[in-house]
Every structure is written in structure tokens, then in C-alpha cells.
Input
Amino acid sequence: GAVVSQHPSRVICKSGTSVKIECRSLDFQATTMFWYRQFPKKSLMLMATSNEGSKATYEQGVEKDKFLINHASLTLSTLTVTSAHPEDSSFYICSAGGIDTQYFGPGTRLTVL
Amino acid sequence: QKEVEQDPGPLSVPEGAIVSLNCTYSNSAFQYFMWYRQYSRKGPELLMYTYSSGNKEDGRFTAQVDKSSKYISLFIRDSQPSDSATYLCATRLSGGSNYKLTFGKGTLLTVNP
Output
């Protein structure tokens, strides 16, 4: 139980394009999902908290117009990186709030050329 | 002072050794404590979840929480090469899993065959 999936697992795009990453809770409903970014050999950096049916709450320093988050259902949240640039290249991980704690997806590696 | 302090290591042990991983935290309001294991290029996997002080055992893993000293530990018995990963401690306030986690930086563990 408590499985979270992400799609795609890896994406390479050209600078200036937008990329959408999906996060799904497969066997439970999550009113809250979280989006993290992780740089090599660094810990997780929380970007935003996504609540089903309402606007996401962004952490300080995260551009909400650049990282669009939609949590349309209790099992799906999406992160769209708009007008991606090479500095947006990173490992993006989502998590979903289960009964007791957060369960993480496998991550999406984004490379912007 | 960071809210959660964790020695990043790296820590290298021979197969079969007992591994001790530790974190300290500063906010006495933290009530829930977790250990996640993260393999390279993967999302974190929940290992142990404890509430308040005490011990919890699951197979070769034992988690300890000492709220009086704000100290949390993870012990791995009979360590295996497959245990080689980064271990992240995390805490959160009381309430539901909708609350964000505060992570340590992670400890990189290598178990040598």
C-alpha cells in the first residue's frame, strides 16, 4: 500500500519549452501532495504544498508563475515547469500525505538543454 | 541552528556490522519522526515511522526517539550491501500527514561486502 507514481521518470527538453510532471497516489487518496526539488548529493528542498481543489502554497523563493501546480483530484497533482531553462535541470520528487506520513514518488529527472 | 541536524557522512562499514545513524532537532514541538532510505536517483522510501519517544523495531531496523534530549536514531543490524544508500531523518509537528516535513541533510552509507 501507499504507492506514489510519477510520470515521466526522465525528460529532456529544449530551453524555452514547458514540461508537465504528473504525480499520482495509486492506492490511497491524498488531500495534500508536496513537490520537492533535489540537487546532486543534497537533501530535499520543498517547493510547494498542493491541496486538492485549492491553490498551492509555495515556499519562499519559489516562483509560482514558473512552477505551476494543479491538484485537480485526490489522486493526481501536476507540476508544470514553464519556459524551462538549463538552471531548472534537477530531480523533482513528489510526495502524498497518507494516513500517517508522506509517501514519495520515484522522482523525475529533468534536463533542459 | 538548523531545525534538524544530521551528519552527512559518508559512513563506510563492513557487511554484517551494526550501523548507527543519528539526528538531533531543535523544535520541541515535533511529535512525529521518520527515517527514509534513498537510493541513488530514486525517491525516498519510508523505513520507519514513530510517534513521540520510544523504540520501534522492524526486522533489522530499530528506530529510537528521545524527546528529552531531542535525539533520534536508526540502528541497522547485520548490515548488507543492499543497505548502501542515503538515509534521511525527518520530523513534523502533530496533526495529520498534511503537515510538511523537516528533513536532515541525509547520511550516505556504504556497506562493503
Remarks:
- The first strand of chain B starts at residue 4 and ends at 6.
- Chain B touches chain A through 22 residues (CB under 8 Å).
- The mean pLDDT of chain B is 92.
